[in-house]
What we know:
The chain is an alpha+beta fold. The protein has helices at residues 56-61, 85-94; strands at residues 15-16, 21-23, 26-28, 42-44, 47-49, 74-75, 81-82.
Amino acid sequence: MAEDKKKVKALDGAVMTTEGLSFKGFILSPIVENCTGCDRVAAFEEQSYCPAYAEPAKKWARGICNFATHVKATVDKEGKTKVNPLKASKRAAKGR
Ligand code: SF4
């Protein structure tokens, strides 16, 4: 099962432009501190980028990145684990 999840390591086809790193039609922004440790991080010309999300800073601005491989869920102020509401709904439907 784990082998099914192919990790995108390389930024194949990425081109550095005056606007930034162009990859699959998107301009990628460098990763942020929260991305450190994520398996999706890929290096390109001494900078690190995320092939899964163009603007890592925006992805983390509203909480945990749902594409992150190094963090799964957070614990909120009351000590409860926060999960994605859609995933929680699916889990509830399956009876887990
Ligand atoms: S998947 Fe999320 S945590 Fe991982 S590098 Fe991309 S933006 Fe950062």
